[in-house]
Amino acid sequence: MTVSDGKRHGEDETTASSTLSLDDGDIHVCQDGPRDAPALLLIHGSASSTRSWDRLVPLLTGSHRVIRIDLLGHGRSAKPAGPSYATTEQGRRVGAALDRLGVERAIVAGHSSGGVVATALAERRPDLVTALALINTGPGMDAFIASGSAAIAPSQWPPTDEQIRQFASTGFSRAGYRIPRELLDEVRMMTYHTLTATMQGVRDYLEQRALPDRLAALGKPLLVIFGEDDRRWRSSSAADYRVVPGATIELLPGLGHSPLLEDPPRTAGPLLAFTAIHAARAD
After folding, report:
1. How many other CB atoms sit within 10 Å of the CB of residue 101?
2. Which residues contact 272 (CB under 8 A, 6 or more apart)?
3. CA 218 to chain centre
4. Alpha carbon of 74 to those of 33, 64, 259: distances in Å?
5. Helix or strand or coil: residue 184?
C-alpha cells in the first residue's frame, strides 16, 4: 500500500489518501476520522467517485472512521480494460480492500448503484458487514425510470461538461442543479468501457434477483434513505424493502436521487441515528 503525502483540494485536512494494489488493479481509498472509531464504509454510485461524499463526510467523522473507496474504473482507481466489472466482482474488490486496511467489521452505506455493490459485498462477506444503509438505491429494474436524455456515444468520449450535465441531470431533484466541477472531471477520467461495463453489471445483478429478496436472506440491519423526488428510481419502491425484517425506511421530501449532495445534513441525520445503534458491532 502506498500513501499519499498530501490532501486533495477541498478535502478535510484529516483526509488520508492511499492506493491499494490488488490483483486486477489499484484501488484508491480515502480515510477520515479517528482510526480507532467504528468503521463506516461509503460506496459511490456509477459514474461517480469518493468525491460525491465530500460534503457528507465531515458530519460523520465525529463518531466514525469513515472509509471511502473508488471502485475499479472510477475516480483515482485503475481503469483496466481486461477485468470484469460485474457487481459481484466489485463487491469482492471492496472486501479485499478492507482486508488490506485491517478492517474486520464495518457498517456499509452505498449511494445508488453503490448500494447494489454494498449488497454484493454483504452476500460475499457477511462476516465483514454488520449493517447496511442504502441511499436512493432502486430495489429492482421495475422501479427504474427511463430517462429521456440522450446517451453519450463512444465517438463523443470524453464528453463535454454540457454532455455530462445532460447525462446526469436526473440525478438531482431540480433542473439547473450545478454539478460540482470535480465530479464532472472525474466522469471524464473514466473510459467509455468502464462506464458502460459497470452500468451493465448493476443491471445484470438486479435482474438476477431483486435487492429486497437478497437482503431478507442476509438478515442484516437495514436503513433505506430515499429522496422523495428521485427522477431515476420510483421513490415509492422504497416500500419494497419492508420485506427485510426490521428495515427502517426514511423518505426525504424535496430531495432527489442525490440527497448526499443536495442536503448533506438531512441525509446525515437518519444515517447517524442508524449507525449509533449498530456501531458497537462494528467496533
Report:
1. 20
2. 59, 60, 63
3. 19
4. 23, 24, 21
5. helix
How is residue 276 written as a grid cell?
449509533
Tell how strand 39-43 and strand 65-69 pair up: parallel
Element (H, E) at 66: strand 65-69
Residues whose CB is less than 8 angstroms from the CB of residue 269 and which lie 6 or more positions away in sequence, other chains included = none
pLDDT tens string, the chain, 283 residues long: the values are 443 433 443 344 478 999 999 999 999 999 999 999 999 999 999 999 999 999 999 999 999 999 999 999 999 999 999 999 999 999 999 999 999 999 999 999 999 999 999 999 999 999 999 999 999 999 999 999 987 666 788 888 989 988 888 888 888 877 667 888 888 888 999 999 999 999 999 999 999 999 999 999 999 999 999 999 999 999 999 999 999 999 999 999 999 999 999 999 999 999 999 999 998 655 5
Give the CA-trace dihedral at 53, 56, 62, 68, to 10 degrees.
-10
- Which residues pair with residue 227 across a beta bridge? 252
Q: Is 204 in a helix, a strand, or coil?
A: helix
Instruction: Return the C-alpha cell found at 123.
Output: 452476500
Amino acid occupying residue 143? A
Q: Kindly report whether the global pTM for this prediction surpasses the value 0.85.
A: yes
SS3 51: helix
| Domains defined along the chain, listed by start | 2-282 (3.40.50.1820)
Q: Which of 215, 234, 217, 235 is nearest to 225 (CA)?
A: 235
| Burial zone of 280 (CB within 10 Å; 0-12 exposed, 13-18 middle, 19+ buried) | exposed
DSSP for 97-116, please give it.
Answer: HHHHHT---EEEEEETHHHH
